């Protein structure tokens, strides 16, 4: 009698069903509030005149589509094959590539240089060690005067806890002091660390949002000087801008 063997089931990938969980639709257009947000982040990072951009972890491609609408040249990388396939189907210049994998070379990025490198909601998915390796590699892809823009749950704020703990793929909580530490030895320095760009999604509630934002500012000042003798950003999400160290 022949013995039968049962093929073991493959272990689920960390990012299986990630697109569905994020509710990223295939044909979604760039929403108006995204446009306002992207414009603000790029302006504050000093990249308004940047011509060549790289987005690491382009996700649903919203930022890439906005950048193209502004006449910029932009390339994207992702580690999720489904997102790369969808990006290529929509005409984006995207590649399957893990910037933190030191076992591979620069691949599609070999010999390329960029005015700006964007990582929205990416660095928190890497361990501190992998994040440092990724930053060192990205430093070598910057043009002179180029900037790296990072957005992540604000480790300086207790209000970031639901975001940081709300995604099982998050590996690293990042505060300003840790980011400064991570940049040591990478050739990069932290130029700014602030609240992510605030926007009022609807004009009808813009006045109310303005009041809320001013209350947030006041809270930051009071709490900051009560506990740290300086103001600290307390919004749930932070944006940091990195540049080449002198």
Automatic annotation (TrEMBL):
The lineage of its organism: Bacteria, Pseudomonadati, Verrucomicrobiota, Opitutia, Puniceicoccales. It comes from Oceanipulchritudo coccoides. This is Class I SAM-dependent methyltransferase. One of its GO terms (molecular function) is methyltransferase activity. The keyword Nucleus does not apply. GO terms for biological process: methylation. Keywords: Methyltransferase, Transferase. Transmembrane segments: none annotated. Pfam families: Methyltransf_23. The keyword Methyltransferase applies.
């Amino acid at each position: 009698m022949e013995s039968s063997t049962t093929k073991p089931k493959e272990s689920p990938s960390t990012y299986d069903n990630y697109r569905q969980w994020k509710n990223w639709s295939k044909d979604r257009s760039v929403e108006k509030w995204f446009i306002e947000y992207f414009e603000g982040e790029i302006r504050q990072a000093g990249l308004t005149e940047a011509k060549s951009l790289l987005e690491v972890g382009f996700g649903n491609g919203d930022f890439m589509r906005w950048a193209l609408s502004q006449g910029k040249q932009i390339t994207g990388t992702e580690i999720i094959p489904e997102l790369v396939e969808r990006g290529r189907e929509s005409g984006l210049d995207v590649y399957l590539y893990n910037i933190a994998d030191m076992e591979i070379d620069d691949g599609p990025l070999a010999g390329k240089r960029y005015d700006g490198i964007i990582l929205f909601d990416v660095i928190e998915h890497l361990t501190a060690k992998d994040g440092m390796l990724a930053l060192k590699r990205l430093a070598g892809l910057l043009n002179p005067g180029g900037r790296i823009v990072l957005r992540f749950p604000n480790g300086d704020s207790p209000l970031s806890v639901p975001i940081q703990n709300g995604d099982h793929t998050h590996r690293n909580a990042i505060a300003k002091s840790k980011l400064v530490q991570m940049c040591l030895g990478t050739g990069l320095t932290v130029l700014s660390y602030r609240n992510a760009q605030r926007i009022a999604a609807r004009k009808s509630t813009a006045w109310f949002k303005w009041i809320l934002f001013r209350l947030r500012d006041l809270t930051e000042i009071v709490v900051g000087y009560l506990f740290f003798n300086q103001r600290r950003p307390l919004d749930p999400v932070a944006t940091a801008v990195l540049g080449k160290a002198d």
